[in-house]
Specification:
It contains twelve helices and no strands. Helix 2 (43-59) packs parallel to helix 7 (120-149), helix 5 packs antiparallel against helix 11 (227-238) and helix 11 runs antiparallel to helix 12 (243-267). The protein has helices at 2-41, 43-59, 61-65, 69-72, 76-106, 109-114, 120-149, 158-181, 189-203, 215-221, 227-238, 243-267. The radius of gyration is 21 Å and the shape is globular.
Amino acid sequence: MSTVDGGRTSTVELGGRRAVRAASRRRLGALARAELLLLGRNRGAVLTALLVPLALPFSVRPAIDQIDLKTQGLNVGTLMLTAATGFSFLFAVYTSLVSAYVARREELVLKRLRTGEPADAEILAGTALPALCLGLAQALVLTVGCAVLLDAGAPKAPYLTVLGLLLGLLLSAALAALTSVVTRTTESAQVTALPLVFVSMLGSGIAVPTDVLPDRVASVCELLPLSPAVRLVRAGWTGELGGYEVMGTVLTALAWTVVAVFAVRRWFRWEPRR
């Protein structure tokens, strides 16, 4: 009898967990759809998210042409591909999400959502999903375009590129939520996002390959937040990282992600500053 009762209890618990997960997915989908509609109404944010990552990689082409690529064992296609992916992280996801989180907070949308059923993680994830999907789509399109048009060739370790994309997108969203903490208004969002944008462009191998930097500077730059993701994306094409290097790069990316998520849980603001 106890076995039967135990089996029924387990079935009920399993069904309850499935129902909870299904409800969570429905709430997450509803939040993402609402955020997508709001994003579509903001033409400035849409243009920034769509056009900047597409145009900026070509703006760094003159700087790349001045580098002795053969000496460094590099090629234009790989560098442009890496730059394109990095710009997608920075502009399609990071800067657009900083503005989105601040705007929803100032409009009291986040505060109202917290009084309902969605959990905090669902609210943040639902707000981020459209930008994450946009960033992923852009990165894939630009990657294919660079591979075909600039003769980047086929990736030697595609799983590293996929891992780098996922880690970069996740960390960009977490950093956006963290940056919104120190951003008072939507107008100042572009300003507060600039430090990370500039540091990442110059030090994470996006606009300037780390190979051309002095060894000590390059070693420091490898510890920047987006450097591990950009490095993995590039290594997927070149196959330049060994097993221990891949492990260290992944651990660095995970460490930054854990720190960012912890900081967001600790300091994220759900209401406007008064």
